[in-house]
Structure formats: C-alpha cells, structure tokens
Amino acid sequence: MPETPPKPRLRRDIDENLKRVYEDALSLEVPDRFKDLLAQLKSAEAARKAEGGQ
After folding, report:
1. Does 2 map to a domain?
2. Taking the complete model, does pTM exceed 0.70, yes or no?
3. Which pLDDT tens digit goes with each residue over 10-20?
4. H/E element, 21
5. Residues 6+ apart with CB under 8 A from 54
C-alpha cells in the first residue's frame, strides 16, 4: 500500500519542531570533557607531525 504524503500543516509542524530542536542543540555549550578530548587529539596530532609523520 503506497504511503500518502504528509499534509502541508503536518509537514510545517515537523519542520518547525526540528528547527527548534536543532537551534536548542546549537546553543548548548560543549562539555569540558569533550574540550579536553579535543585538546588531547590536537596535541597528539602536533606531536606526530613534529616527528615527521602525517
């Protein structure tokens, strides 16, 4: 049985809710643990490059 396309209002409501969730996620601060992990990765990459690796 073929699916019927969502009704325009339902589609608009879904779009608005997805945008709201996305914007909320963007406003969250990156946890310190993630920042620490990123710093460790950058440090390891810099050390590898300094040793002549790529």
Report:
1. no
2. no
3. 999 999 999 99
4. helix 8-27
5. 48
